[in-house]
Amino acid sequence: MENNVEQLFQETGMVGGPGIQINAVVGRACGAAGAVNREGTYCDHHCTSEGNYVCPVARDYVELTSLAPARYLACGIKNAAQALRQSRDIFLQYSFDDYAVDSCIPQEHAGVFKQLLWASGKKVDVNLFGGEAGWHPGVCEVVSELKKEQGGFTVILTTTGSPLIKNKKLGERILSSQLDLIALSADGLSAERIHELCAMDLEGIRREWSTIPSCSQEKKAYEAIHAAKVAKGRVSVMFNVVVHPGNIGEIMKILDALDQHFPLAKKNPYFAQSSFYHGDAVFAKEHEALLEKFSDSMINEQLKQVGQSKKFVPRLHYWLLQKAAFETFSGQELRLALSGYGLWKCYAAGRANAYLQIGKSGKASDSGVFGGHLGCFWNDETVTLDDKQVWSMSNEEIHEYLSNQHVLAQAAAKPCPGCSMPRLIGNAVSMELGMNPALKTKYLQLRKKHVGF
After folding, report:
1. What is the pLDDT of residues 154-205, one digit of tens each?
2. Domain containing residue 419
3. Most CB atoms closer than 10 Å: which of 46, 50, 261, 451?
4. Vertex 412: Cα angle to 399 and 345 (nearest 5)
């Protein structure tokens, strides 16, 4: 192979450090009649089926004054990060060698892989998430507090871009903070519309944006283009692009349009999923060939950018997993797998799980401070700790949670059937240990073909 294995490990995302996604805008939801202290997520959008997307936080109507203070969020993130680092070390010390044998990694490569994983575990990616995390009154304070630990955190704000278009002063504060990256959503526009918007000045985008209903994904896409223009040259940008039935026919044109206007921004395409909430398959039979062709293209792009500047977020193993699904399943079973069903389960990866989520409980809270629960943003009925908050948890308690997520899942009345959300999957180790065993044969064949073992 032209690229050596160490370089492939490092530049394709197979080796990656731990990550944390925190729902920073959990508060008291006042949208449900009769609900007492129900936790919800603040957002200034209400994406519903009218806008071709059903968001789990639509209609929560959370009181901004009920959000957890910034000091709680920063403390919770630091607690979770310390436990993640230690769990990674324990896994590498006591379990990695068995994993390497089971995953058919040759001894000479396993040693390199292990060393790279040791090195990558020091820095933790923190994704300030929501809802709209940019509206938390202390969002910049959280960033500042995390950045006091030199080299300890990469801080990402996932935002619709609404704070930057609605409140210039707040937008300036956000861009002037020590954020490493803003992540924006760009799956609600055609390639043609992207070109048109990028030709406008900021005020022109704002005028058109003001006419779009709040239930629409298109409104967020306008905000994303506006935010990317404002952030250019100041803060790095990533575009999350959900691949769905409405855009699969021109997905490469959409990605090319984004690349033309924002060549320094990374693009992060991934398949839409419905498995979190036990929904119907997202895709139909007529989408299968297009999706497989796109998966093949992404595998090629991942390999092509090794040694080059990165057009796409490095996630070769994610695309090998999708390709393995095409080569393993067919018919409705394939369409469900592409929608996330049974593809990968966080609670099957154990201590190797490289990603922690912190968010809301599905039950009423009487703690006086909302949020901070280890669990899942999209499904709070499987591995969510309703009775504990991470800013009050010890390392031992968080370690126990990481080790025993499968126990929580077994006890759940209707456990999550899995997903393939790329950032939750984490690195190749976490993915391989949590993926559907039925995919293993095809996945290992694909890994050998493209990685060399």
Report:
1. 999 999 999 999 999 999 999 999 999 999 999 889 999 999 999 999 999 9
2. 5-451
3. 451
4. 60
